[in-house]
């Protein structure tokens, strides 16, 4: 048997990285030509063209009059990734109930690769629409759901996540220090829920609670809304209690489904 060709392996890895860089570029830009992708990524035009043709042949990219777009094959992959998450369908129904009851935006997020990922979301009649859509990734340390998840992680996993966190400030209120974050996580564990006071988006507050099954956190429920509505007793007591009850029901349904 011949020995592995290290140079060939490196080329294969580099090629895969190039392909995903192109996909990410199209995700953000959309409707991009070969020339535009080349300029954005600073790759050789022939390299970009070759990868785009391969992606198109495989169905992951479509070419239209305004350029290349990511294809719906990614939608199929995303659905499969979402559906394998523990309790997704039950969480989706619970999120809809919470949104109806609070009239605000409710969501269920999970942790993957040290980031918070929106798994499902529902909007109440007064909900404020912000950019993050299903599948969007946001920092754990700047969101209520993210901090609720962090508070439920094992000490080893928490250390891994915090070590790789860049603590980029999203607003002036964002936590940017690991010690400050860890102190707040202690408080969250004690009371059972977390707050986001304009830490991710100016003017937007949120409450989050962890969802655990078999003593392992699998995600978090949260409700977010304008700071002029999410304040006082409603924000500090009533909404947390509502979410704690919803999380308890969801945990039981997942455990015995």
From TrEMBL:
> Keyword set for this entry?
DNA-binding, Transcription, Transcription regulation
Which ranges carry the HTH iclR-type domain? 10-72
Tell me any Pfam family this protein matches.
HTH_IclR
Biological process terms from the Gene Ontology for this record are: regulation of DNA-templated transcription
InterPro entries referenced in this protein's UniProt entry, alphabetically: ArsR-like_HTH (IPR011991), GAF-like_dom_sf (IPR029016), HTH_MetabolicPath_Reg (IPR050707), Tscrpt_reg_IclR_C (IPR014757), Tscrpt_reg_IclR_N (IPR005471), WH-like_DNA-bd_sf (IPR036388), WH_DNA-bd_sf (IPR036390)
What residues does the IclR-ED domain cover? 73-256
From the Swiss-Prot or TrEMBL record, what is one GO molecular function term? DNA binding
- Cite the SMART domains for this sequence: HTH_ICLR (SM00346)
Protein name according to UniProt: IclR family transcriptional regulator
